[in-house]
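Supplementary Methods. Inverse-folding protocol.

Structures were first reduced to a discrete structure-token string of length 209. This string, shown here, constituted the complete conditioning input.
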């Protein structure tokens, strides 16, 4: 009977030792699975189209990484499992986010096209004051028109790139809006006075004989 009890005690001690040994090792399998889920989410564009979910998942991942450094392997294991689920959620939200961004870009393109028409009309009114900036205006006007067309064209397939293009266009439009306001407020240059005409010298009459 004593031998049985002793044997049970030995197996119990061994079992506990194995449990503690398992907990004392970094959760490499869970870490790898979470990393693969993160890479898949990034490849799908979750950092652009499901940014809030992706940022939340990265925080969970960072927490698990910190726990590994502190050798809190049990907590880290759960953290990696939670991170994996969070990255999968972010990946799942990509399509909805992409669609929403495409709609936003399309709406913004229409608004910016309207604003550009007004800006162009204002520039034509101030044509005389724009003589020294005519070349710069022509170059930027071309870039704005091409940028708006490109954003409209790529809004559905790559709304992230289209949104970036709109940001560039808006920067140019804002620059010229400010410049045109300054020109409009500036007084017109005074007209140059016409050069004074010299009186013709009086003709001498021939002397009488």
């Amino acid at each position: 009977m004593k031998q049985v009890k002793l044997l049970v005690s030995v197996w119990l001690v061994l079992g506990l030792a194995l449990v503690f040994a398992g907990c004392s090792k970094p959760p490499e399998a869970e870490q790898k699975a979470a990393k693969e889920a993160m890479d898949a989410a990034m490849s799908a564009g979750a950092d652009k189209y499901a940014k809030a979910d992706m940022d939340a998942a990265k925080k969970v991942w960072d927490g698990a990484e910190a726990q590994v450094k502190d050798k809190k392997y049990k907590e880290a294991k759960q953290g990696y499992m939670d991170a994996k689920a969070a990255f999968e959620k972010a990946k799942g939200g990509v399509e909805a986010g992409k669609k929403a961004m495409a709609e936003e870009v399309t709406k913004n393109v229409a608004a910016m096209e309207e604003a550009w028409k007004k800006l162009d009309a204002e520039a034509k009114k101030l044509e005389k004051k724009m003589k020294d900036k005519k070349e710069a205006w022509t170059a930027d006007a071309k870039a704005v028109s091409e940028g708006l067309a490109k954003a409209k064209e790529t809004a559905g397939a790559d709304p992230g790139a289209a949104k970036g293009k709109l940001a560039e266009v808006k920067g140019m439009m804002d620059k010229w809006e400010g410049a045109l306001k300054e020109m409009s407020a500036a007084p017109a240059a005074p007209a140059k006075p016409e050069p004074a005409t010299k009186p013709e010298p009086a003709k001498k009459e021939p002397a009488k004989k």
